[in-house]
Amino acid sequence: MQITEIYKSIQGESTYAGLPCVFVRLTGCNLRCTWCDSEYTFTGGHRMTIEEVETEVAGLSPGGGLVEITGGEPMLQERDVAPLMERLLRSGYTVLLETSGERPLARVPNGVIKIVDVKCPNSGEPDTFDSDNLDALRPHDELKFVLSDRTDYEFARDFAARHDLYSRVNAVLFSPAFSKDAAGARDTSQCLLDPRELAEWMLADNVPARLNLQIHKFVWDPALKGV
Ligand code: SF4
After folding, report:
1. If residue 10 lies in a helix (H) or strand (E), which one and from where to where?
2. Is the pLDDT of residue 93 over 90?
3. Does the chain have fewer CB atoms within 10 Å around its N or its C terminus?
4. Count of CB atoms within 10 A of residue 188's CB?
5. H/E element holding 6?
6. Over the stretch 162-189, which tens digit does the pLDDT of each residue have?
7. How confident is the model at residue 2 (pLDDT cuts 50, 70, 90)?
8. Are 11 and 18 in contact (CB under 8 A)?
9. CA separation (Å) from 93 to 66, 78, 199?
10. Burial class of residue 200, CB neighbours in 10 A (0-12, 13-18, 19+)
11. Which residue's CA is the nearest one to ligand 1's atom 5?
């Protein structure tokens, strides 16, 4: 499979935020989100076998722990990534899969926790989520919405209610988008949507979603890769 990088850091998002995590970042994406902070994954990378990836993960986190399969869009390499996830599960890892939900998710191994990033109107890639994937969701999965303004918020609020997401999955995550050129300051000044404003909208509407800040961008320089 084509890999951009494998590294260990702190998980920045989801209900697993704050935990040590090995990230396996696959090369290539079929979307072009306006605020994408992973454009460096679109091309390049290097070929690795499933066994080589597994060995590198084991070196960084011996004996188990948290692993996130991300990209790019990892499901573009489903033929290799599905058996990799199976093997990691069998070796005792907790496996997260970060995906846009544009590709079919039905064949993702049952034990994998899917973090599905449903694209909102201002992402530049609206309506790319495959609604058939709603049937592939399991109670341990999480749905994420990256929001840049009130239009995105209302889309996420209404999508979650319409599809009864709160009873289907472990968490619905509302995440303020960061400027793609964010660098230097490790604070909310580089969020496209002020988290305080988002929190106030959520409280006013009684939305039971979880406010999801990308904590790695508050711990390290937001421009830093490999963290
Ligand atoms: S799906 Fe992810 S990697 Fe692909 S363009 Fe959007 S934010 Fe970037």
Report:
1. strand 2-10
2. yes
3. C
4. 15
5. strand 2-10
6. 999 999 999 999 999 988 777 777 878 7
7. very high
8. yes
9. 6, 19, 33
10. exposed
11. 32
* Beta strand extents in 80-218 (DSSP E only): 93-99, 113-117, 142-147, 171-176, 210-211
Q: Which residues pair with 142 in a beta bridge?
A: 115, 171
pTM for the structure as a whole: 0.95
Ligand 1 pocket test target in 2, 31, 97 with most atoms within 8 Å of CB:
31
Give the DSSP H/E element, type plus range, for residue 201. helix 195-204
The Cβ of residue 43 has, within 10 Å, a number of other Cβ atoms equal to 12
Bond before 124 cis per omega within 30 degrees: no
Our CA angle for 174, 61, 16, nearest 5°, is 15
- In contact, 219 and 186? CB cutoff 8 Å: yes
Give the span between the Cα atoms of 140 and 102, in whole angstroms.
20
Q: Which amino acid is at 203?
A: L
